[in-house]
Amino acid sequence: MTTIIQTSRSRTLDRGDLRSGEELRDLLCRLHEQGPGAWGDDPAVPKLMEYVCEKYAALAKKYGLDPWVAASAAFDVMRSRAAREARDPWAVITHAVRITCIYEERAQGLLCSVHQARRPRFAGLHDPERFSTRAFPLTDDHPSFSTDLIYEDDAVEHDKTKLLIHSVIEHTIELVMLLGWPSDAARHSVEHICDCLADAGSPNRASEALRRERHTRALLDVSARSWLSLVHALLGRPGPQRTVVSGRGVLLRFLLGETIPTLLSDDDLVRSLAFAAPGAGS
Questions:
Q1: Angle at Cα 78 formed by Cα 214 and Cα 32, nearest 5°?
Q2: Residue 135: inside a domain, yes or no?
Q3: Is pTM beyond 0.85 here?
């Protein structure tokens, strides 16, 4: 009987219904409950994707993209919990599609992947340009062409610092994965937090900026509770308690020479990260 009702709803679903946030939410919840194959089998899905393609065609054209690029971005968001549980699913989808189009255009200009274009460290770069189109030589103002001498000891020290930072990041990702976080969520979350810390310059400013991160949480499908627990675990909590070992962040503790076995013996840290793992409370 339930199957008949659902089939009937799928057949009667038209574009007028799709414009309603409630109808879209009902459809997304139903597709989620039916399992992974529902998006390929449900007859309402082609109508939904056609409507999505038309809805975001103008937005895609604004950034010089094919409409199906925007539709693909919308498809990814519609399968997330953020869209299903949103008060206004279309608002969540539209925001995510706009962000994706921005970074798609940015990636094409920078001749890099979309994943790289999203990283804050590349925000200040400009699109490639020909030497012949410049009013003055690039060597006059670009630091990469500086003729200042780089002493060998400084270069060696710089390489050691890069290796240490890379090691800390990889150990942090491994620790988070050991405590129940999915590999993709662990890697992308830790790398994003580290990038934000590098840009902010201090754990307190980074924590404040990351606390307001909503788009990243939506893309990673991580709840606010899980996200804040991870941020506090990695960066530590601001205030006087940072002077004691229990208040230090995981990143700082790795830099100070602590190891994964040592951190796994910290019951408070293990408990906070394990309970915050996506799906741990379900």
A1: 115
A2: no
A3: no
